[in-house]
Design a protein that fits this description.
The chain is mostly helical. Helices cover 61% and strands 0% of the residues. It folds into 2 domains: 88 residues, no CATH class; 92 residues, no CATH class. Helix 2 packs across helix 3, helix 2 packs parallel to helix 4 and helix 5 runs parallel beside helix 8. The longest helix has 23 residues. The model has no long low-confidence stretch (mean pLDDT 80).
Length: 210
Amino acid sequence: MSTPAADDWRSLYAFGWPAGSVRAVLALMLFGAAWAWLLLRPAVDVPDYLENLLFIIMGHYFAARKDTGVTEEPGPPPLYLPRGAVRWTLVAGFAIVTVLLLRQDRLAWPAEGAPVHRGISTLLLVAGFLVGVAVSRFWNWWSARRYPPRWLENLRATVSLAAAALLVLVAFDLIELPDWTVVQHVKQLGSRAVGSILAAIVGFYFGSRS
């Protein structure tokens, strides 16, 4: 027997839209703004407030919304789209923007004679988190075990903790990075590059544990 809420779900949510529709519109608007910024303003950093919102939204869609067996909201999916469509759109949008920037040689290393794209730090942070989510989902699909082996958990945690510690030291200028070739290449991308890569590693951990 259906409940009154299931029969009259339009009375429960803003504008009579399906549950989650307002969140979906907000996510698509703000992610769309970030994609446009990366494509149209390559020499300007993505505003901090917009970048911060991206990660709050990603945390909601890829971590807080993880299937926990909770009863679904009554009514159709958000915006009447197939379930998971908003999440896939967010992932696809960043993938498309990255491919377009690569095809335009706007993410090239400085040594190759191309200007450095200031949005690379945002792309690195997003990529780190989303790759972590993908690894987590792949493990759940591929393995019957709920958790990876202890040695793999130890490795993932050690790398992430080391990256976080280095990130703090770099942020406060408390450490001098070694004169390795790979480090010098990364530093050529700008003062934020080293921190962005370390932050992406930490983001990977959170994504993989979502």
